[in-house]
Amino acid sequence: MTEVAELTIGVFGGTGPQGKGLAVRWARAGLRVVIGSRDAAKGASAAAEIAELSGSDTVTGAENSECAKNADIVLVAVPWEGHAKILDTLREHLIGKIVIDCVNPLGFDKRGPYVLEVEEGSAAEQAEALLPDSRVTAAFHHVSAVTLADVSVSEVDTDVLVLGDDRDATDTVRALAETIPGVRGIYGGRLRNAHQVEALTANLIAINRRYKAHAGIRITDV
User: Fold this and answer.
1) Tens digit of pLDDT for each residue in 172-184?
2) Fewer Cβ in 10 A, N or C end of the chain?
3) pLDDT on residue 34
4) What is the residue extent of each domain of the chain?
5) Cα–Cα dist 88/118, whole Å
6) How open is the CA angle 90-54-103, to the nearest 5 degrees?
7) How far apart are CA 118 and CA 61, in angstroms?
8) Which region, left, alpha or beta, applies to residue 88 given φ > 0 means left and ψ of -120 to 50 means alpha?
9) Which residue ranges in the chain fall short of pLDDT 70?
């Protein structure tokens, strides 16, 4: 397994709250981070904001294809509606690379969040189908974006479930999770089990709304 400190992390969706929050934490840990966007100028603007928040000079911005080319690992944190389209356009640039999917296919109505049906079974499995030559994993679904972006929070009290079929890839993603103080990366099973992990996000949103919290998860006895 390659040392995480030696890798460049690309973030698709770094202009959104989840991608931005994770990028801030990785930059604070000293990792090289590239923020991808459909528009290079927007990527650069988001990178400048993340650099200021993190106090780091290791963050840059780029158009999505350049981000994919320059990164060793990529995080997919885009809206579900654009998930398939963006991955389909980046397939050739992600060959052989670790792809971390943290997209939650959810809908919202007056009763709150609910799970959407995905033909492939989950967002992560859709990514696997679209990126057959990439090392697809699923992780970071349950980490509060608000907590991640709040640099006054020194330790993030949560575990990150990491799923995938490539042992080295899941170990690398677990190590990446643990660059964030307070976080543990926990192997959560094969990628075919990603559906229930993505779906659990709806429950956490409901919990956080009810208790006005930023709850995550902890796995006991591990």
Assistant:
1) 999 999 999 999 9
2) C
3) 97
4) 4-211
5) 16
6) 35
7) 31
8) alpha
9) 1-2
